Amino acid sequence: MLNLSSFSSAMDAVAWRGLLYTVFILNFVLVCQLILLQPLVSAFDGKSGDAAELFERVSQSIKVKRYSEALDDLNAAIEADPTLSEAYLRRASLLRQLCRYEESERNYKKFLELKPRNSAAEKELSQLLQAQSALETASSLFDSGNFTKSLEYIDKIVLVFSPSCLKAKLLKVKLLIADREYEGAISESGFILKEDENNLEALLLRGRAYYYLADHEVAVRHYQKGLRLDPEHSELKKAYFGLKNLLKKTKSAEDNANKGKLRLAVEEFQAALALDPNHLAHNVHLHLELCKVLVKRGRGKEALDSCSKALQINKDLTEALVQRGEAKLLTEDWEGAVEDLKAAAQNSPQDMNIREALMRAEKALKMSKRKDFYKILGISKTASVSDIKRAYKKLALQWHPDKNVDNRDEAEAKFREIAAAYEVLSDEDKRTRYDRGEDLEDMGMGGGGFNPFGGGGQQFTFTFDGGFPGGGGFGGGYPGGFGGGYPGGGFEFHF
Fold first, then answer.
1. Of 218, 260, 263, 354, whose CB is crowded by the most CB atoms within 10 A?
2. Strand 460-462 vs strand 491-493: parallel, antiparallel, or unpaired?
3. What is the DSSP secondary-structure string of 354-400?
4. Please, what is the average pLDDT of the chain?
5. Whether the model pTM is above 0.85
6. How far apart, in whole angstroms, are the C-alpha atoms of residue 24 and residue 31?
7. CA distance 414 to 397
8. Cα–Cα dist 444/451, whole Å
9. Residues in Cβ contact with 451 at an 8 Å cutoff, skipping those fewer than 6 apart
10. Distances (CA, A) of 45 to 29, 55, 71, 416
11. Cβ(117)–Cβ(107) under 8 Å?
12. Is 276 left (phi over 0), alpha (psi -120 to 50) or beta?
């Protein structure tokens, strides 16, 4: 009996301890719930101090850009007390800043139902509608190509009333890139990536800005990071492989140019340029290298076009000025060549190669202003002595003034040119000096050229074997006659 009594007492003690333990656990859980849910309890029990604590926590979350946490707190508070008006206003404001405009508008209207004619809420609702309209307008202007006006709407309205609007921030980066403000685009996209380093669109846009600055290595790194996060992202893939293709074609063209495979180099430079006409920072290099190859191939007109395009991108590119000068020499634009090479020499006064090119251009310009004796006689620069005599005889007979009574003045001028050309080109020493570009004055020709008819200077006699065709010689008609009538003797040319 004693044993049974002891056993019963022991069981009662265990039961009581279990009961006490259970009560303790239940109370502990209740206390924890009250502590953790205190802001929510205060939201519907009307205690202003606890509501203030809730809103302070929301404010802190917003300050460190933890928008999801802030929204979670506000959602829970409203769920606990659907009449908590301040929570609606806070949620509306946060949603407006995030440009979740439709949700924000519903919260403002709910707040105004609870607090009619609240001027602050009405003002914020008006700002919301302005921001919403401005974002739509900015997007439309971007699509139509009016980048400057679109950027004004983003900066002056949308991001003023919705400073945390990711959509607006990304659109701003796109606008800066479209307006070729690449440094600004890099800066703005950097702010986005600080908040979310894995934002794929920001990685794409920042890579594109570096790409257009021709900082291709950094661009590739941005594209690669984005593709590691999403290997099937179509825009990132297009940007990455497009850049790889451009670099490959550029290198191939440069290699062929260095190996002297000029025809292939021209084709590949042109193909590289066709890949992205907007990539000015890289295309200026392609245009210049293409111009160099075309100059080497003697294709002056095409070279002129390529170098001009390089200079449209960078007007102070000295090497492009030099190459365009060379192209103008090929197209016989002597004055243009001198102008370009002078500008290049001013940019690089110590460059002897440029100075030599300028001297060539100035000499070519000077030579272009003198009479072309080869052209006057209608012969090539490689004509033989017999070719020169034959051409002279034919032209002298054609333009003798006595045979051109009706246009005597013109014939006389032509005859002077023909005789002067013959005098220089028939003399080996004078012809050599003429071909070198020396002045006619240095050959004793005088500033007025050659005068076979007197009037001061040397007098010349022309004797053609067999006489002048159909004219019985050069004896009559012209003062002094031809064939010995010139005072003081002179030269006789026999054919």
1. 354
2. parallel
3. HHHHHHHHHHHHHHHTS--HHHHHT--TT--HHHHHHHHHHHHHHT-
4. 84
5. no
6. 11
7. 11
8. 12
9. 416, 457, 458
10. 21, 15, 21, 119
11. no
12. beta
Ordered by where they begin, the domains of the chain are 41-179 (1.25.40.10), 277-368 (1.25.40.10), 373-493 (1.10.287.110)
Task: Supply 205's token pair.
Answer: 């846009």
Cα separation, 219 vs 203, in Å, equals: 9
Mind listing the pLDDT tens digit for each residue in 88-144?
Answer: 999 999 999 999 999 999 999 999 999 999 999 999 999 999 999 999 999 999 999
Q: 45 pLDDT exceeds 60?
A: no
Q: Give residue for tokens 């971007």.
A: 142
Q: For residue 462, what are the β-bridge partners?
A: 493
Those residues with Cβ within 8 angstroms of residue 28's Cβ, 6 or more apart along the chain or in another chain: none
pLDDT band at 74 (very low <50, low <70, confident <90, very high): very high
DSSP letter (8 states) at residue 474: S
Contact 141, 129 (CB under 8 A): no
Three-class DSSP category at 91: helix
181 Cα distance to chain centroid: 11
Q: What is the DSSP letter of 164?
A: T
Task: Quote the DSSP letter at residue 253.
Answer: H
The span from the CA of 148 to the CA of 196, in Å, is: 27
Collapsing DSSP to helix, strand or coil, 125 comes out as: helix
CB atoms within 10 A of CB 240: 20
Sequence letter at residue 34: L
Q: Taking 70 as the threshold, does the pLDDT of residue 13 lie above it? A: no
Give the separation between CA 212 and CA 57, rounded to whole angstroms.
44
Tell me which residue has tokens 């500008």. Answer: 343
Residues 137-164 have pLDDT tens digits of 999 999 999 999 999 999 999 999 999 9
